[in-house]
Amino acid sequence: MVSVRLEKLTKTFGKTIAVNELDLTIKDGEFLCLLGPSGCGKTTTLRMIAGLETPTKGEIYIGDVLVNDLPSKDRDVAMVFQFYAIYPEMKVFDQIAFPLKMLKKPKEEIDKAVKEVAELLGITDVLNFPVERLTMEQKQKIELGRAIVTQPKVYLFDEPLTNLDTKVRARTRIELKKLQQRLKTTTIYVTHDQLEALTLADRIAVMHLGRLQQCDTPDMLYRYPKNFFVAGFIGSPPMDFIDCTLVEKDGRFVLDAGIFSYDVTEFKEDIEKLTNSREFVIGVRPEFLTLSLTKTANSLAEAYVDIIEPLGARMIVNLKVGNYTLKANVRKMPLTSGEKVWFGFDKDKLRLFDKKTEHCII
Ligand SMILES: Nc1ncnc2c1ncn2[C@@H]1O[C@H](COP(=O)(O)OP(=O)(O)OP(=O)(O)O)[C@@H](O)[C@H]1O
Ligand SMILES: [Mg+2]
Q1: Which residues of 329-349 are buried (b: 16+ CB within 10 A; e: fewer)?
Q2: Structural domain of 129
Q3: Which of 74, 294, 344, 350 could form a disulfide with 298 if both were Cys (CB 3.0 to 4.6 A apart)?
């Protein structure tokens, strides 16, 4: 087991900065997801770690070894791209044995390793089947088997579940997580699917435009996004945002959002310490918005119910307030489109972003 350390890792293609001064340490035995929208530099980062792409600048350490100049085959990493079986007529055994044969390992060693891996993945009974006779799920396992049979120090996965339908995807995700927990091999897993990242990762590194935005546990990312981008990217439906101006009135700090005002005097010191800006964006998760038919102590403003998206026990209510459409994810309640409701949220659920720097202040 080893850690992987990236220092100021940078890759440019002509004028495109694919990866920009990435500082990141993946701990020994950790499952780290690289998450971000298309084109943010995830694959390029992974390819540099694998040795398939040369960094323009910066260092890559695997364990304590600087590997920048080490060829891919000497890095002891296994890269898995999208899962698929390459040779449909080849037997499962030979598919899994393939990487070991390439390494010219003795036959007994190959036999033993393949059988162990098959046992681990629960595919012992299909070892002599040609791959074309397997289910999609079994095919996934062969790809996994191929990755783990060489016992690399680090796994690198690049969106391996993309080609699968939703059900198989969910099941394979769980298999993958179980496997990693058992093997405790340092894993870097690239995805643009936040659900995948949230369910798999010990920590998630969120990237945007080649830069690392935040690296944290799923829970911390969800509760304390460091900036506007992370706040909007993590969470489904995404966070509700409302522009506001901070005004000081009789010694009190109040956020004036036009449609309501919100007293934040208790955060006065924090706000003053972090910024002298007056323009902010309020952020609240849809699941933290509360709705009521009559005004309560918690109510901030009235809103019109627009479209309702039923989700079984819960529902997403689209609310029209001034120029905004806010989403509230609430327990199922009798509401109809066009109805008026009051909404509010608790103070501990409020996040405040500096409009200029986009940093989260509280
Ligand atoms: N070989 C290349 N030549 C030129 N530009 C490249 C090359 N590889 C990547 N890029 C560019 O670098 C940026 C990062 O690409 P990368 O493939 O790392 O993104 P990604 O996060 O993996 O995206 P996706 O989610 O779509 O797979 C993009 O703007 C891409 O067009
Ligand atoms: Mg990619």
Answers
A1: bbeeeebeeeeebbbbbeeee
A2: 4-233
A3: 344
